[in-house]
Amino acid sequence: MVAPSLRARVRAGMIEEIKTVARRHLDTDGANLSLRAVARDLGMVSSAIYRYFPSRDDLLTALILEAYDALGDAVEAADAAADQADLRGRWLAACRAARAWALAHPAEYALLYGSPVPGYAAPDDTVAPAQRPPVTLVGILRDGLASGRLTPPDEELPEPLRGDVAELVELLGMDLPPALLARGMAGWTQLFGLISFELFGRINRALPHRDEYFDHQIGLMADLAGLP
To answer: Is 126 helix (H, G, I), strand (E, B) or coil?
Structure first.
């Protein structure tokens, strides 16, 4: 393999430094990023930063992709470290990992799941990284179904939801009964609703024992999905 050129290494290092400074701005300013402000903190003229990120949106996309991948890594690692025969244990571990990552990286979580950034439209290449946590949860259901340890719900979905879920089955490439996938998706949406309510202070006064509340709720999600 040919070693990267010095110029390429310098450029890669500069890109990482820009993203590091931009993350600090996320902590203080939210997603209201300014390339000029980032350049100023780096001691470079504002025009120079455009050699690395042509626009604010390009920098935001880079931060979003890294955040999605970091969250996906955490969730997938927690699932992989659990006893693969313990479906409920895997589900709980994956959910707890998502919450732990969010609490450790609140600004990056807010960039992913907070208010939309005005004027920014995420490109298509953010879709696959964003799907990693729900795919992990749905994968637990798939494994339970394949092993015979999970019985799918005996219910018919209403139209037009039935068609929507059938498209999701095809998109995910998992041969799951639509009703089971719908319950898995309900677990996914409730998981990130729980995390968002906690992180954005919506339940902090009403529910001071948030660890216990979170575990109780993700247990209810596991019940809904039929995990033994």
So the answer is: helix
**CA–CA separation, 226 vs 228, rounded Å?**
6
Cβ neighbours around 51 below 10 Å, total: 10
CA atoms of 52 and 56, how far apart (whole Å): 11
**pLDDT (0 to 100) of residue 1:** 53
Contact 127, 61 (CB under 8 A): no
Statement: residue 3 has pLDDT above 90? no
* Ramachandran angles phi, psi of 158, nearest 5°: -70, 155
Residue tagged 């400074």 (tokens): 21
Which of 200, 42, 18 lies closest to 111, judged by CA? 200
H-helix segments, the chain: 6-29, 35-42, 46-49, 56-81, 87-104, 106-113, 127-147, 161-172, 178-199, 210-225
% of the chain at pLDDT higher than 70: 98
Q: Which residues contact 51 (CB under 8 A, 6 or more apart)?
A: none
For the record, the structure tokens of 110 come out as 């807010």
- The CA-atom distances, in angstroms, between 84 and each of 27, 37, 70 are 37, 47, 22
Q: What is the pTM of this model?
A: 0.90
Cβ atoms within 10 Å of 74's Cβ, excluding its own? 22
